[in-house]
Each structure stands twice: as C-alpha cells, then as structure tokens.
C-alpha cells in the first residue's frame, strides 16, 4: 500500500478477533492461532525446532514482534517488478507480461514457474509448515473448513494473480501442526546474501526420524527457489531407509531440482538447492555421525 501497489478503498482491522493461543491437544497436535505474533511463537517451548528457526531467520526482531502468523503465511511476493507500479506484472495487472522472465531474475524461482510468472514465495514459515504437513483452519461466509497448507498455495500457471485457494471473505483462524514422531528432529537452513533481514536465495526445512544410524522417515520442503513452498517427495522417498551419511544425502538430493527451469540470472539455484538440503540433513543428524 505504501508503494501504491494496492489501493484498497477499505482496510479492516482484525486484531481484536479471538484468534490467539499456542497449545497442544491430547493427541499431540500443535495449534497456533493466526494472530499470534511471530516472536511469541518462536519463543514457545512446545514449537518444533524447524518452525522456531524459520521464524527467527525471518525479517527483523521489530517486525517479528508485530507480524502475525496468518499475515506471514499470506504475505505478497517480494518480486521487484510486482512492487514497481511502472513495470508490467501479471500478478498486479493480468495480461501485462512478466519482465522478470528476460530481465533481472537472480532472485526468482526455478521451480513451479510458468511463462506468466517466475516470482518466488516469500515466507520462511510456510516452508517449515509445509514440511511438517501442517493444515490451516479457515472461516468465511460458507462456514469453516480445514485444508493442507501446501494446497492453499497455487502455482502461477496462466493466472498468477490468483495466489491462494482462499475464498472471498475467508480468514485463516489457526494453524494445526501434526505431532512429531518418536525421536523426530528438525531444522531450517537458510542461504541468503546477508546474514539478517534478507529473503532466501534457497532454504530447506527438514524433519527426520533416525534409528540405528538410518533414516526411518524424512520430510523436506524448500524455499527461495519456487513459486510456492516446494515439497520434495522424491528426495524423501530416497532418504527413507538410507544411512545417515553425507554420501546418502547427496544421492537423495540429486533429484531435488528435477523439472527446474533456470533463467538467465539464477541457474546457480539448481546446485544450491541440492547443497542446502545436504547441509540441513547433516546438521539435523550430526549426533548420529559423531
């Protein structure tokens, strides 16, 4: 709004709505209210490490103290062309074109792109939650529904202006995170141009279970390289039953960029996504290798 990208006739303050709370239920599922502040969720002892680390590597401390969980999940793209109202942008003005395809695209996506849009998804938190199979509860004119967070986001296709599956009048009311399995561990690794207050060139959210030096389960999502938080089922399948070794991790990560469409300025993201996944896996299984 400050940049005149959006000029709504009305802005509704929802801060007084009862959409708060961080608590576990009897089945071990974690519930996070959509209006909880990012910093409060990061500091809560019952939150998965991958969520905490994703939050602490997001924005600045001042923003984390004010920004809500629901707001973070629904933030708009950071693409410079989208935010420059003098440039064409299919997300802002459908049919006007996507200058990033042939223009300045170092920060843009290589996965989930289309000829209409190559902008990356901005949220670190969303990547962590998608890796954990989190769901969001929505309420609107037609009542309440619960959907997988991964299904809330839409790849651009030919309609990049439609970014989510939210219906008119719907709000996110809470995030529901499944309980971790026995011995579960998780981490979030973010690679960026500077150490703080910077969006990801590539990130990896990893949640694993390890037994007797082997991975019995693995869930992986990546950010900074795709138009939505990008789950990697092929890498997960290759890791299940594999030894917790660097060689096994590199072999599993080999398919991470399958289907990538690098642009003139961001081909480096193809090897980077593989290396970031390996780094995260080594970090989360380190005690098994010592």
From TrEMBL:
Annotated signal sequence range: none
SUPFAM superfamilies on file: CO dehydrogenase flavoprotein C-terminal domain-like, FAD-binding/transporter-associated domain-like
FAD-binding PCMH-type domain ranges (all copies): 1-182
InterPro entries membership: CO_DH_flav_C, CO_DH_flav_C_dom_sf, Diverse_Substr_Oxidored, FAD-bd_PCMH, FAD-bd_PCMH-like_sf, FAD-bd_PCMH_sub2, Mopterin_DH_FAD-bd
UniProt-recorded name of the protein: Xanthine dehydrogenase family protein subunit M
